[in-house]
């Protein structure tokens, strides 16, 4: 059930209405049933995997709670991690592992199981493992109420594509659902702000991401037919697509949860206004990058064991992060590439600061930040080539063609309007992109999300802006020939 589908348009209002009207003691049970139904709409059999991960992590946390010595708690923790990773490995990485081993040893007829990847499996398993590790560390107490814990793992707005919530943040809110008063539950401002986020996320997804994906898919599918201009349009287009697709989903998830009185973490913070690759990872998929920081990078040693090991830990963390995204060497290479970029940035940072001081560069000016943001965006978008391409060889060929197949003449001949989007569609995309840039500028300058910023504006302006976004989504999100309803990119992870 996609957020941008008619099914969800029917499901969500009904789920919320019943949630707001039923007695307080049934709220958790109702949301859990809604969450399981939401997940079962993809494949009812895979709800068993969700339940298995839920039961394993719940039981291991309760087991650890009964053990007094910290060293004895390692057994249930290790068992929990191994069982969950075994589920993840079997359904996501088994075929990749077998084909890689077969290729390494040049073995023919490698068996392939072709298991259907359960939607969102990496997200809910990492969220459940984070809870177990928190219990082991003593950061939180084990949850005794299985309904509350099951809802924590499977809460439907963020179940299949995050944000990957922390137990210390989400679990107390879930426990508190039954104690919310009617007045708190029917808070008009909270519901209004949640609806604004849903509307803005839908605009990002169906007006921008799904539109630019037509160009991206066409060029990447037949990259041998295109030169510098077409390939650069696809490279920059995919950077825009994945931001508006995943950022739009995250925005809708935060908004949908907010309508029900649950606050989820912000997952994107105007990432293409980052002034360094390090800054980019503070703004992009924040829930995952902080998860790897807290549960992998810091336990490895983080910044505590010297510069050389710190840089090694960065490489390890981002390589694992790349593998988390998919069972393909392209994702591993993409993660490793970002690790190297961070290593280079760390090594060059003292030199760059001395150069700025020697040349009296004013780094606090808007012009400097804009130039740095453009450079970082270009670097990140080139790295996305390995994320989007089918193979590393394809990615290298695309990069080679960008620099060797110059065809700037197509910019004046109108040929670019045959790359998937005609002139009218390109104008719609540019107008929508301008709105996105303005909203992200406001996010950077004010530190506020769009709903928070609008809440402080004149009511007439707020209503007009929301109506404009809804109108644009309805009018320009209804696609004709050549368009279809796109599944969210990160559902496959």
Task: Record keyword descriptors for this entry.
mainly alpha; 0% strand; globular
Using the CA coordinates, give the radius of gyration.
Answer: 24 Å
How many DSSP E strands? 0
Question: How many structural domains in the coordinates?
Answer: 2
Order of helices and strands: HHHHHHHHHHHHHHHHHHHH
Per the principal axes of the C-alpha atoms, what is the gross shape? globular
Euclidean distance between termini CA atoms: 16 Å
**What's the overall average pLDDT, rounded?**
92
**Main sheet summary:** none
Structural class: mainly alpha
Helix content: 55-70%
Spans of at least 5 consecutive residues whose pLDDT stays below 50 are 479-483
Q: Specify the number of helices.
A: 20
β content, as a range? under 5%
Notes on the structure:
With 493 residues, the protein is mainly α. It folds into two domains: 6-186, no CATH class; 190-492, no CATH class. The protein is built from 20 helices and no strands. It has helices at 6-21, 27-40, 47-65, 74-104, 121-137, 146-154, 167-175, 182-185, 188-221, 228-259, 277-283, 286-300, 307-325, 329-358, 366-388, 392-404, 410-413, 423-446, 450-455, 459-476. α9 packs antiparallel against α10 (228-259). The model is unreliable at 479-483 (pLDDT under 50).
């Amino acid at each position: 059930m996609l957020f941008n589908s008619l099914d969800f348009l029917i499901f969500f209002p009904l789920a919320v209405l019943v949630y707001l009207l039923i007695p307080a003691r049934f709220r958790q049970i109702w949301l859990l049933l809604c969450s399981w139904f939401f997940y079962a709409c993809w494949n009812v059999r895979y709800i068993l995997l969700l339940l298995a991960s839920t039961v394993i992590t719940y039981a291991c946390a309760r087991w650890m709670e009964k053990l007094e010595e910290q060293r004895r708690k390692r057994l249930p923790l290790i068992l929990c991690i191994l069982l969950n990773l075994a589920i993840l490995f079997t359904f996501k990485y088994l075929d990749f592992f077998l084909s890689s081993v077969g290729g390494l040893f040049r073995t023919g007829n490698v068996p392939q199981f072709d298991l259907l990847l359960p939607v969102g499996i990496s997200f809910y398993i990492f969220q459940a493992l984070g809870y177990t590790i928190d219990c082991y560390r003593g950061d939180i107490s084990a949850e005794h109420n299985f309904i509350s814990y099951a809802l924590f793992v499977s809460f439907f707005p963020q179940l299949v594509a995050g944000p990957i919530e922390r137990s210390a943040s989400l679990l107390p809110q879930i426990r508190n659902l039954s104690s919310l008063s009617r007045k708190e539950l029917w808070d008009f401002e909270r519901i209004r702000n949640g609806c604004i986020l849903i509307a803005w996320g839908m605009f990002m997804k169906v007006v921008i991401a799904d539109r630019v994906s037509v160009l991206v898919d066409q060029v990447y599918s037949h990259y041998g037919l295109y030169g510098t201009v077409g390939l650069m349009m696809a490279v920059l287009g995919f950077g825009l697509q994945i931001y508006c697709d995943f950022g739009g989903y995250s925005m809708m998830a935060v908004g949908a949860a907010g309508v029900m009185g649950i606050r989820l973490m912000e997952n994107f913070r105007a990432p293409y206004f980052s002034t360094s690759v390090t800054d980019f990872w503070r703004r992009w998929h924040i829930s995952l990058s902080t998860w790897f920081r807290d549960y992998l990078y810091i336990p490895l040693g983080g910044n505590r064991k010297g510069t050389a090991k710190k840089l090694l830990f960065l490489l390890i963390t981002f390589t694992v992060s790349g593998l988390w995204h998919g069972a393909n060497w392209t994702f591993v290479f993409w993660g490793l590439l970002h690790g190297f970029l961070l290593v280079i940035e760390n090594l060059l940072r003292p030199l760059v600061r001395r150069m700025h001081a020697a040349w009296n560069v004013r780094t606090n000016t808007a012009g400097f930040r804009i130039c740095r943001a453009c450079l970082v965006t270009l670097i990140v978008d080139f790295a996305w080539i390995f994320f989007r391409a089918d193979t590393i060889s394809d990615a290298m060929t695309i990069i080679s063609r960008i620099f060797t197949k110059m065809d700037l003449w197509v910019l004046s001949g109108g040929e670019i309007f045959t790359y998937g989007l005609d002139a009218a569609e390109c104008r719609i995309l540019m107008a929508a992109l301008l709105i996105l840039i303005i909203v992200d500028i406001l996010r950077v300058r004010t530190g506020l999300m769009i709903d928070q910023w609008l809440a402080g504006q004149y009511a007439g302006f707020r209503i007009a802006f929301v109506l404009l976004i809804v109108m644009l989504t309805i009018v320009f999100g209804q696609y004709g020939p050549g368009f279809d309803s796109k599944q969210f990119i990160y559902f496959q992870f």
